Amino acid sequence: MPSLRFTIYEILGYFAPGMVAFAALSIYVWAIFFPHNAFLIDFSLTKEEIFAFLFLSYSLGHFIQGITNALPRAEDIAEKSPDNSQLIASAKSRIALKCGIDTKTFGIRQIVSLTQTWMLHHGKTDDHDVFLYREGFYRGSSAAYFLLAIAFLVRGCRGPIAIVGKDFTCNIGGSLMLTLSILAFAISVVFFFRFLRFGNYRVQNLLASACLPMESDLDGGTKDNNETSAETPK
């Protein structure tokens, strides 16, 4: 049986947004069902509790990414931009040569997908992976922080808040929760624009890679040049 492998995308794309979503969900439950109970801080967790936290965070991360599939895709935004028309046309013609198929009726999603597969088989995905990981992180985190902003707002409207630790008790007013809600919303907006930026980087990188000549083209060109030089009398 093959061993399980966790990639950087698993951490940035699922775990990180999932932890924020878990915090938001906890605040929702606290605000709706136990509004008059103090929030107890206890870091002495068992292995089972840590595993449950990680599992729920990971699952919520997948749920968040599923929700964000409704957000605009970088491919669609790039296709609507007139500045990319020549690049897309060039990518179509180059992919047709590389893959030996007719790409005249292909949309940008198909071109990007074919280019990504071609790069994967040639082991040239370093830049693409960086853009993909960051796009996934910012996309999921934007939605998670938006949920957290609403959670802070709901909890602030449910009455007095008390946080109890091992050696302290802290009472929090609604104004602080409102401030936290605004901060979380601001982070969500910033992350959303970062998601759009890195999505654009990813698509532009794939289109540009599709337009590059194949290694066989370069080898053939070099060979032809060498043969021409050899045939030229000195």
Describe this protein with a few key phrases.
mainly alpha; 4% strand
In short:
The protein has eight helices and three strands. By secondary structure, it is mainly α.
Report on the structure:
The chain has 8 helices and 3 strands. It is mainly alpha-helical and 234 residues long. The protein has one domain (8-213). It has a 3-stranded mixed sheet with strand order 1-2-3. A hairpin with a 4-residue loop joins strand 2 and strand 3. Helix 1 packs across helix 2 (47-67), helix 2 (47-67) crosses helix 6 and helix 4 packs across helix 7. The longest helix is centred in the C-terminal third of the chain and has 38 residues, at 174-211. The chain starts with 7 loop residues before the first helix and ends with a helix.
Question: What's the β-strand tally?
Answer: 3
| Count of the domains | 1
Low-confidence stretches: 216-234
Provide the structure class: mainly alpha
Shape summary: elongated
Count of alpha and pi helical runs: 8
> Helicity level, as a percent range?
over 70%
Strand order of the largest sheet: 1-2-3
Q: Report the β-strand fraction as a percent range.
A: under 5%
Task: Report the span from N to C terminus.
Answer: 64 Å
Order of helices and strands: HEHHHHHEEHH
Q: What is the radius of gyration computed over CA atoms, rounded to a whole number of angstroms? A: 25 Å
